[in-house]
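Thread: "does anyone have the structure for this chain?"

Original post by V.I.:
We have the sequence but no experimental structure in hand. Need at least a predicted one for the grant figures.
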Amino acid sequence: MPTITSMTAWRSRAACAGQDTELWFPDYPIGAPAMKICGRCSVRAECLYECLADEVPSRRYGIRGGLTTGERQALPELPERPADAIAVLRELLHTTTEDQTPAERTGPTMTTDTELVAQAKTADLPVGQLLKWGDEHPDKDVQDQAARARIALHGLRQRHAADQELTAITTEAAQLEKRLAELRAREAELAPAKPKRKAPARDYDTPTVRAWADEQGVECPRVGQIPKRVLDAWRASLPQAGGVQ
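Reply from O.Q.:
Generated one for you, tokens below.
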């Protein structure tokens, strides 16, 4: 039995590797650039097999293996064994070239003109009309899809508006910060230099005051600033106010 790794190893050889995936879900079904890329891909059959195995037939969309939704629906029943199914798909795809549009293709993968017209009309239908059509459709599943689409669109609109506002705020904040920096720089140029403040002269000698405090039994810390109460007591003990012994 093939492993998951062996079944998906083809992806590294795919011609679409690194391309914008939006190309494979175009608004126009005919002549899509994705078909040209798929047309020269060596692993189209593997890609198409994986798509057919994973997607829900009633909800097929986009281009896979170079085939549109209608072309995939027109494929014949494939063998159950993956290797045999891929071999059949490779043979079916052999007649399809990168220069052919779906309308030009022949054989079991041909898309009808009626289907192409329907796809083109759906692609051109405004979102509002498409949602209205879904709301009024008799199929409950289609109604549910329309309801979910409305919720998703509402969320996208809210997120888009929020992102737009955040971008505007970020831009304006950056401009304001730049302008503020310019104003502060100019202010610094114009403002006169501030004179350096000199430390007030002391009227006491620190070792002398501490020695006096030791003699008088006044509590005084051995390091750091001398408390005001100690200085006041020392000054009061001087013969002349403000004198230094």
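V.I.: this helps a lot. The first helix runs from residue 4 to 8.
O.Q.: and The chain has three domains: 4-124, 126-188, 206-236.
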